Amino acid sequence: MAKLGLLLLCAVLLHTGYALQCYNCVSTVANKNCDDLAEKDKIAVATCGKTVAPGYAAACIKKVIQDKTTNVQNTTRACILTKSDANARECDAASDRINVVACEICSDDLCNSAEQTHFGIFTLVAAAMAFVAVQRLH
Predict the structure, then answer these.
(1) pTM for the complete prediction?
(2) pLDDT for 120
(3) How far is residue 29 from each of residues 12, 72, 81, 135, measured CA to CA in Å?
(4) Per-domain residue ranges for the chain?
């Protein structure tokens, strides 16, 4: 039984080694599908590495900006390269004409979808608790 718990814990930890996938799109006036991902099958998926260089990591971003002059909002979903040890500057406004309405950076596959629920840390904690519980039984 202890081996089963260890195997479960290893399986949860091993999933971090594969390449990260992110939705990759920019909304336009003519095509707002990137805003709400109503038709996910029509949205491109980009593959980017989990770790690119020491101190940097690939991540997914969903950023909604609004032009202060026209009040037009655009949504961008993409892979980004971000520093692992600092606050992400990717969520800063690019200019004085732009408001950042929303910005999310995440590191799970297709996590830059608005409605997706993330269980990454929860799954890890639950697996660790299950492992400890199995160890106490023996």
Answers:
(1) 0.66
(2) 44
(3) 41, 9, 27, 57
(4) 19-115
